[in-house]
Model the fold of this input.
Amino acid sequence: MVWSALGILLSFALVTAVHCIFSIQMPSSLETVNGSCILIPCGFTIPQSLKESLKLPVSGIWRNGSRWFTGSTDIYNSSRKLNEIQGELLGDLLQKNCTSVLYNMGSKYSGTYYFRIETGFKYTFETPVQINVVDILPQPILSHARVSVKESTEVELTCTAPVPCPQQPPNLTWTPELGSITETLQTDETGSYTLSSVLRFVSSRSHHGESIKCLLQTQQHHSVSDHPCAITVLYAPKTQIEVNVSDPLYEGSNVTIFCSADANPEVTQIRWFREWRGNVSEINRTDLTFTMTKDRVGFYYCEAENIYGKQNSSKVSLNITEHSSEDGYDTLREGNSSTVKWLLGCCGAVLMLIILLTITLCFKRSRTRSMQGSNVNKSQIYVNFDKNFSNLQRESRDSECGVYSNVSNSQSKPASEAIYENSSI
Done:
């Protein structure tokens, strides 16, 4: 009985002590980036005796530096319109919720913060929160540093980053964006927020070797995940065949056939096959280089294999083209055609030369005739002038010696000739 009574008294004393204590619940430290805001999750308890004193009007104050007035600065007071920094009291103080947000946090506002309540009583809580303002965003965290999957398998990657202020949340982006993205804002039991982004895609061989990064961005800052996620995709071979041969293919020609395969891991075996008239035979060679003969006619293909499967290439057909007399006739016809074209070209050139020579000769003859006509006119003028001048001289002499001339002429010549001469003069 004594021990039972003592236990009851001790329990009552503990309950009374708890109800007489001020306490506050908030993170011990928070971090935000320069120029951004910060959310302070906050809740408190007061002694039971002051329950009735928690009433309107009520104010919440965030004090920096010290719990006391000396050496401290009231950064934000919910009852004032003008404060050193902008803030907002999100919680209901009457419900003992002091959750607050402080905006435009600069580096100088890093420090120790205390919460103070002023209502029917005034009290500054003893437990502070350490707020750090940094210049660089925290690096987002990837769920996987390396992923190795088989082709056509769905891959899911998660990137997370702390959110110091959900009122101004950052963005999470993926590089490269290989599929669908789902983004959520989550909160934990302490009231802190985390941004989560999930990338989902179906793996293919084109994704092999990709390095996937997660990027955290705000209006003023950005940060990239420290370690990108390396993607390894495992897949069966994709086989291709290539033939190096003359066209047309004659008997005796050299033939080389290549087989290549894209595979991860590497191909462990390559096999060659020949198909002809419904029969398929394997060729025990790693590469195919041979001289074409009639017994090698057929369809050829290769098969590549690794631990994830095997695949046949497409088929290539090898068939001999027979030499025929038409080939010689075609060659002769082509040669004759070339000769005819050459002769026609020569004849055309000679014809053009003849035409040019003819035009030149005609032009020269025309010019010579024109010049000769001009010279004849000039000669006639000169002759006429000479004749007239001779007649004038003759008349002058006749006038001076007319008697003598007439007598002389009449004596020496017959009458008929004298008459002719006189008429000429």
Q: What stands out?
A: Confidence is low (pLDDT under 50) at residues 1-19, 325-335, 376-390, 395-425. The first strand starts at residue 23 and ends at 25. Helices lie at 2-19, 325-400, 402-412, 415-424. The chain has four domains: 19-134, 141-227, 237-318, 380-425.
